[in-house]
Amino acid sequence: MADHIKIREASGTWVVRAAGAVIGETKNALELSEGDYPPVIYIPRDDMAMAFLEKTETTSTCPYKGNATYYSIIAKSGEIANAAWSYEDPIAGMEQIQGHLAFFKDKAAVEEV
């Protein structure tokens, strides 16, 4: 694992809200801290209503975590494009975040309740 990245279990219960609906809730979230960036909460896919998420063709690469794939939220009010990302096959040392989703703050709210 890169020395500037720390992954730990996020205590408490976390919810993901988008377009007025709760689309996920977990007690198994992870918090990833990377350098000076604000921490990011990663939610297990098993705790998400995946019927509301659709994989897109968007990808990106992080030299420390690997290739990210993106998901849009499909809501009654319309699509929220590329709202989440996931490292489906992360590089060595980042395996903890495999099977998890993280969300852009301006597209979904991830909150501890």
UniProtKB/TrEMBL annotation:
InterPro entries: DUF427 (IPR007361), DUF427_sf (IPR038694)
Domain DUF427 intervals: 15-105
Domain of life: Bacteria
Pfam (any one): NTP_transf_9
PANTHER family: BLR5716 PROTEIN, DUF427 DOMAIN PROTEIN (AFU_ORTHOLOGUE AFUA_3G02220)
Protein name per the record: Uncharacterized conserved protein, DUF427 family
Native source organism of the sequence: Cognatiyoonia sediminum
Origin organism lineage: Bacteria, Pseudomonadati, Pseudomonadota, Alphaproteobacteria, Rhodobacterales
